[in-house]
């Protein structure tokens, strides 16, 4: 029996337990205008700590608005690190202990990708509002399970697709809805990065204390085949298919969600993907050079390209319409400041909009974390709800499936393969 079948059976069993718990969902605390939103985090690693800092920034503006009260991680180092950020935070080595805590209103899930779905469903089953980092799931079946769990629940769910809170996104969506872009048959997306030669993207050193005594290795494996502790894979899980979806689920998913949302696109009908491990031969399994094509039922094709050996063009999208073009461009990231020059503009196609004018995005960005906290209070739908998390996850998994199977994959084949594997 393959590891995938063992892992899938374990997940389905866990999901069924989560669904049963949803049926007896505890009542959420009704938050008053002056009540603090009490947040817990599962997985305060590098990305999780960035989210903690975002929470702390919100709290610094209004200390009564939000606070981090608990954190759970399977690695002792991460628990110590989050305590340095929030000295009074409760820490747990098991996420279920955190979810059992009564004085938590909402939970951030920032664990590695292959554990997202388990933590997602467990958090909803515990009656917590949820902020789940992207990509929402590691696989197509898990994406379906997460969507179903969220729809059965009355909890507020925000996915960590931060582009959905950008002013650029709001303006692009408005321009398309207003009809000034016309019929869009092709969207081009790209994302490029670089690292010093010999230093592959995402490769991190293994801390001296990263050992079997300080890490709950079984919890990390999350139902996958048992094997001796491997500190390199634990720290660098993004490099391996067993735990990751590579650059597709780390980066493309953000831009695909932006495109899907702006155009109101449904699930893709088919996907192809070419590429390979070309930049650094460092033992990684996931490709660092990528060309994706996604087909949609309304005569739209979305392409996305990426490399980890050139950063000149940064990231961006071109929406190519019969009446105009939307150009969203964020140039190469400055490695010192972490910032890049970002512009979003509309250019009319003069043959179809002779009197059209060039427009520039003026709408300010919203704080994605702040939007979630606001919706926890108001019970409104956040900017990146579970539906866009689901569609973007499916698109990402179809692309990876096409790459690994070396063929064009249709939606029907993707779902059939996912169920049978």
Task: Describe the protein.
The protein is globular. β11 and β12 (324-330) form a beta hairpin. Helices cover 37% and strands 20% of the residues. It is of the alpha/beta class and 421 residues long. The protein has 2 domains: 3-163 and 369-385, NAD(P)-binding Rossmann-like Domain (Rossmann fold, 3-Layer(aba) Sandwich); 166-200 and 241-364 and 401-410, Dihydrodipicolinate Reductase, domain 2. The protein has helices at residues 3-23, 46-61, 76-85, 95-99, 116-125, 140-152, 167-178, 217-221, 231-235, 246-263, 368-378, 386-405, 411-420, and strands spanning 37-42, 66-72, 90-92, 106-109, 129-133, 157-160, 184-192, 270-276, 289-296, 300-307, 315-321, 324-330, 342-348, 359-360, 409-410.
Q: What's the structural blueprint in terms of helices and strands?
A:
Elements: H1 3-23, E1 37-42, H2 46-61, E2 66-72, H3 76-85, E3 90-92, H4 95-99, E4 106-109, H5 116-125, E5 129-133, H6 140-152, E6 157-160, H7 167-178, E7 184-192, H8 217-221, H9 231-235, H10 246-263, E8 270-276, E9 289-296, E10 300-307, E11 315-321, E12 324-330, E13 342-348, E14 359-360, H11 368-378, H12 386-405, E15 409-410, H13 411-420
Parallel strand pairs: 1-2, 1-4, 2-3, 4-5, 5-6, 7-10
Antiparallel strand pairs: 7-11, 8-9, 8-15, 9-10, 11-12, 12-13, 13-14
Jot down its keywords:
Dihydrodipicolinate Reductase, domain 2; six-stranded parallel β-sheet; 421 residues; 13 helices; alpha/beta; Rossmann fold; 15 strands
| SSE string | HEHEHEHEHEHEHEHHHEEEEEEEHHEH
Task: Determine the fraction of residues in helical runs and give it as a percent range.
Answer: 25-40%
Number of helices: 13
Structural class: alpha/beta
Total separate domains: 2
Distance between the termini: 10 Å
CATH topology (fold) name of the largest domain: Rossmann fold
């Amino acid at each position: 029996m393959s590891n995938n079948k063992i892992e899938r059976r374990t997940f389905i069993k866990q999901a069924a337990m989560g669904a049963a718990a949803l049926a007896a969902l505890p009542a959420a605390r009704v938050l008053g205008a002056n009540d603090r939103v009490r947040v817990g985090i599962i997985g305060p690693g590098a990305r999780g700590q960035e989210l903690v800092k975002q929470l702390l920034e919100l709290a610094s503006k209004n200390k009564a608005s939000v606070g981090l009260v608990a954190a759970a991680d399977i690695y002792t180092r991460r628990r110590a690190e989050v305590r340095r950020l929030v000295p009074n935070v409760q820490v747990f080595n098991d996420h279920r202990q955190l979810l059992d805590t009564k004085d938590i209103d909402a939970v951030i899930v920032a664990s590695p990708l292959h554990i997202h779905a388990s933590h997602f469903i467990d958090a909803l089953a515990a009656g917590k509002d949820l902020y789940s980092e992207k990509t929402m799931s590691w696989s197509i079946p898990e994406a379906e399970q997460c969507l179903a769990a969220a729809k059965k629940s009355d909890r507020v769910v925000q996915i960590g697709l931060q582009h959905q809170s950008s002013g650029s996104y709001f303006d692009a969506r408005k321009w398309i809805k207003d009809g000034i872009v016309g019929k869009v048959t092709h969207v081009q997306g790209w994302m490029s990065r670089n690292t010093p030669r010999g230093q592959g993207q995402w490769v991190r050193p293994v801390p001296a204390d990263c050992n079997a005594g300080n890490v709950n290795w079984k919890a990390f494996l999350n139902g996958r085949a048992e094997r001796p502790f491997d500190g390199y894979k634990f720290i660098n899980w993004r490099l391996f298919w067993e735990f990751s979806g590579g650059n597709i689920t780390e980066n493309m998913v953000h831009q695909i969600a932006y495109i899907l949302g702006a155009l109101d696109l449904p699930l893709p009908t088919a996907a192809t993907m070419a590429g390979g491990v070309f930049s650094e031969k460092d033992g990684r399994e996931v490709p660092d050079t990528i060309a994706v094509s996604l087909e949609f039922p309304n005569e739209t094709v979305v392409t996305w390209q990426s490399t980890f050996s050139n950063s000149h063009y940064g990231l961006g999208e071109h929406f190519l319409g019969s009446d105009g073009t939307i150009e969203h461009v964020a140039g190469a990231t400055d490695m010192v400041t972490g910032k890049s020059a970002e512009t979003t503009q509309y250019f009319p196609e003069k043959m179809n909009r002779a009197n059209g004018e060039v427009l520039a995005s003026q709408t300010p960005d919203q704080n994605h974390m702040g939007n979630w906290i606001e919706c926890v209070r108001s019970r409104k739908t956040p900017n990146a709800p579970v539906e866009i998390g689901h569609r973007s996850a499916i698109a990402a998994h179809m692309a990876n499936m096409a790459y690994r199977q070396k063929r064009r994959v249709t939606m029907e084949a993707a779902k059939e393969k996912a169920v049978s594997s």
